[in-house]
Amino acid sequence: MSTSRPDANDTLSVKDITFTHGEIFKVVDDFYNRIQQDPVLKVPFQSVHDWPEHIDRITHFWWIRMGGQAYQFSQYNPVPKHYFAGFNPELLKRWLGIFNDTLKDHLEPSQTVVWLLIAEAIGRTLTIKNDLFESEQKKGD
Ligand code: HEM
Fold first, then answer.
1. What pLDDT, in 10s, does the model give residues 39-77?
2. CATH number (domain holding residue 134)
């Protein structure tokens, strides 16, 4: 169910740690600016043609992933997208390093710890699902 888009000062809380929608947007925006400058990760991200739209979708992804209410229609289908982008554990490690640096530059340490833990958990799940997806692809060959 969609509601209206949160204001920058609207909040969500994970455990007792609070994030504003504006903080989530700032982190996501800066993170993908860094990704576009990164010599390794900018390569798989060449599939993104509309960066403002990507940043908007991923801001929404994190907002709902951390417990906020959906406010726009977005369907995510990350496993095939990551598989075809060449997702692997080394790229994930690099992604998480840049993500951690970005979190530290914008947020309090307690917010950084919580958000990074969630990202690491998603990274582990993506790694497992990526391997399963790869086996399925190979069976179809
Ligand atoms: C925990 C780490 C990561 C998280 C939480 C994450 C999250 C996401 C999400 C939610 C999307 C949107 C998916 C959709 O539209 O269905 C996305 C897209 C994408 N991700 Fe990741 N990702 C992670 C790591 C990586 C890594 C390591 C790579 C390197 C290959 C990567 C490459 C991409 C690319 C290229 C897209 C854009 C696909 C497109 O729309 O063209 N991601 N990611």
1. 999 999 999 999 999 999 999 999 999 999 999 998 899
2. 1.10.490.10
